[in-house]
Amino acid sequence: MKWQEYQDAVGELYDQFNDLGTVHRGVTIPDKVTGQPRQIDVLVEIEAYDHTLRIIVDAKFRADKIDVKDVEEVLALSKAVGGSKTVIVAANGWTAPAAKKAEFEECILRILTLDDALDLMVPGKWSMCPNCKNDCIVLDLDGMTQYGPGILWWLAGRCRECKHGFIWCQDCGTNIELPYNRETFCYCGHGWLSNDDGFAVRFDVVT
Questions:
Q1: Which of 5, 148, 170, 174 is the most exposed place for a label (fewest CB within 10 A)?
Q2: What's the gap between Cα 8 and its chain centre?
Q3: Read out DSSP for 101-137?
Q4: Burial per residue of 62-92, b for 16 or more beta-carbon CB atoms within 10 angstroms, e otherwise
Q5: CA-CA distance, 184 to 158, in Å (whole number)?
Q6: pLDDT of residue 17
Q7: β-pairing, 174-178 with 165-169?
Q8: Is 9 helix (H, G, I), strand (E, B) or coil?
Q9: CA distance 17 to 21
Q10: pLDDT value at position 155?
């Protein structure tokens, strides 16, 4: 998953607030002091008592936990654009000092895991890739091939990042992993290959 997709997923999450206010994604707001445009991942504006409350939401797509410096940077950004409330959404949580800093500054910390973000953004997502663990398997390939007296139907997909694949063979009724550019054999003896051309099958090659 790329950081842009994660940011979009956070936007999808906060679209739930549309009944309370207006949700904007990827907007720029002038800095109160310098007038320079500042990038905001998600902005929620709520009209109340003739005032507009601004909730500044920042998405942190990091492999590690966010730290105090990350919290301070987002708080400074929120202050610079007149944020009424600050929210940080992180993929992999935060350190204990970061949590203390956020609590003291009344900044809300939320977790949106990579898996949950992919659920929001990727149609056909099946599961996280067990090979690279950086993206998901998307079941978007299927086929039907006649061989001998019967017809073989299969469902397959590959990781968007490393192309590690999975095949569901109808003859076996089982799911099998399919490493990229390596042939794998299912229980019924068919040989499966995943390469740049897609998926291929050889019938009854294992006895």
A1: 148
A2: 9
A3: HHHHTT-EEEE--HHHHHHHH-TTEEEE-TTTSSSEE
A4: beebbebebbeebbebbebbebeebbbbbbe
A5: 14
A6: 64
A7: antiparallel
A8: helix
A9: 6
A10: 83
At 97, give phi and psi (nearest 5°): -60, -35
Query: 157 pairs with which residues across the strands?
Result: 166
| Residue 36 DSSP one-character state | -
The backbone torsions φ and ψ at residue 105, rounded to the nearest 5 degrees and listed phi first, read -90, 5
- Give the total residue count for the chain: 207
Which residue is it, tokens 């979009």?
A: 8
What letter would DSSP give residue 105? T
Range picked from 78-87, 129-138, 158-167 for highest mean pLDDT? 78-87
Average pLDDT across the chain, whole number: 86
Between CA 118 and CA 9 the distance in angstroms is 8
- What DSSP state is assigned to residue 1? -
Q: Between 96-104 and 68-80, two packed helices, what is the crossing angle to 10 degrees? A: 30
129, two tokens:
């890739």
Q: What are phi and psi of 60, to 5 degrees?
A: -115, 100
List the end-to-end C-alpha distance of the chain, in Å, as a whole number: 40
- Can you read off the two tokens belonging to residue 112? 């949106």
Q: Is the pLDDT of residue 37 over 60?
A: yes
